[in-house]
Amino acid sequence: MKFKANNITDLIKTFETVDKKLEKQSKEIKITVLGGASVLLLGMRDRTTVDIDVASTDDADAFQKICSEIGITVDIITMASTVDLVHCKTINVFRGAKLIVDSVTPKDLLKLKLERFYKQDPEDIYAIIHHEKILFDDFQNITREMIPDFIGNPLQLKTSAQVVVEQLWPDKKLIF
Predict the structure, then answer these.
(1) Sign of the Cα pseudo-torsion (83, 97, 63, 57, in order)
(2) Which pTM does this prediction carry?
(3) Residues 14 and 100 in one domain
(4) Long-range contacts of 45-52 (CB under 8 A, 24+ apart)
(5) What is the pLDDT of residues 113-141, one digit of tens each?
(6) Does position 1 have pLDDT exceeding 90, yes or no?
(7) Which residue, 152, 150, 173, 153, is CA-closest to 163?
(8) In this structure, are 118 and 72 located in the same domain?
(9) Looking at residue 141, what is its pLDDT?
């Protein structure tokens, strides 16, 4: 059966299952989630995710291996150009006996989603902005912060940001 988490409860149950497996192995691990799992765990919006994205840490491979054994796809994210996944601030979202799960902060999650801007990312971005009550000027400043570190064509990032602005602040225009 393919993994599918429709809400925060599904993810917590998944983490509890992994935690029990780790207890049997007497192994402790700590991971940092990103992506849809982070959106759910931070209470940004209800959505479905079919995988768990985690930052590349010392424990990411162990988490991926255990999840693979129980039919859960884990994608280890090794690079992001605008967020330092090794040193970024995190928020604890689950603490079991042997498993600790942190999430990137909403601001960093916004940056990661904006940087990637795949099919599901715009709705997640809108949810983050609404949840965090981010104003246009704040969004513009976040986008400006990202430009120097963005790997790739900055026009891509600017275009993605402008799509968000057109949806949420149709009377505004980003100035870089």
Answers:
(1) positive
(2) 0.93
(3) yes
(4) 45/123, 45/124, 45/127, 45/131, 46/6, 46/7, 47/120, 47/123, 47/124, 48/4, 48/5, 48/6, 49/4, 49/5, 49/11, 50/2, 50/3, 50/4, 50/5, 51/3, 51/75, 52/5, 52/11, 52/14
(5) 999 999 999 999 999 999 999 999 999 99
(6) no
(7) 173
(8) no
(9) 97
**Could you tell me if 100 and 114 lie in one domain?**
no
- Indicate if 122 and 98 belong to the same structural domain: no
Structural domain containing residue 158: 109-168
Residue 33 lies in a domain: yes
Q: Count the neighbouring beta carbons within 10 Å of the beta carbon of residue 69.
A: 10
Residues 151 and 115 in one domain: yes
Could you tell me if residue 85 is inside a domain? yes
List strands edge to edge, sheet with 90-95.
73-77, 51-55, 29-34, 99-104, 90-95
